[in-house]
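Hey L., structure's done. Input below.
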Amino acid sequence: MIGYYENHISIRKNRLCPFKLSHTVAAHSSPCNWHNNVEVIYITGGKSYMQYATDRIPLEKGDMVIVNSGAIHQLNIEPGFSFYYLIVDEQFCNENGLSLTDVNFEKHFRDGKTQEKYFDVVSAAEKYDQTESPLSIAEYRSSVLSLVIDLCSRHIAKDGESYRGTVSSEEHVKLALEKINANYLKPISLDELANDCGITKYHLARLFKLYTGQTIFTYINILRCQKAELCIREGMSITEAAYESGFESLSYFSRTYKKLMKTPPSNAKSETLPSNNQKKLS
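Output:
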């Protein structure tokens, strides 16, 4: 799936530490998604970019990104690119008198003091992961709260600055992403998709490209190619995988796969299913 609402309900299972912190050296671009919880990203190596609502943000080591509540975003992955990401459950913030869902943070910055706060969280998370003692829990909670206070104190966006165009525009794109995600294995008509979203197909096409950086049909083909890659790795022939993934022509599938995945589909045969390359800290 490359376009979906990401539900973080699982991090609420730990009532005292409802956070998710991971360091990732990723091989593939992250899904295009959105969520209620605020996400704080710190780049540890390499160069790449993030499609953040209507903006394309270049990223390199030392940069920080705050993904605001509800913002459509997708992190592009280049070789050697690595990053931490921290997700803080909104309930934790609310319990401490800080409601972040309506706050518009700066989306991209470099700040040594905030970086120190961030790595205080990393250190506390590592200690918590090793012991889960009452003291390590308290230190973890304290470090996250200190970072959130820092963000609220010094990284609220300037008046008039917004991370998105209009709420209605973004909602149209989210609805289109959900429709595509549920139906990409079948033929999808732009007219029907636009009708479901309540706008003209020309307006939808423009908004979709603006918020995702891709055309609707390129997006659909990426989904289908990712599905085909998984099918091939699980043992299907290339022909079977092509038709199983919604392509109606084997030659068109081969050309599209090579263009979008930067490799021929035959290469997927020699690859094993990806292992979890994330070091989970919480």
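Residues 160-165, 274-280 have pLDDT under 50 and may be disordered. The first strand starts at residue 3 and ends at 5.

-- N.
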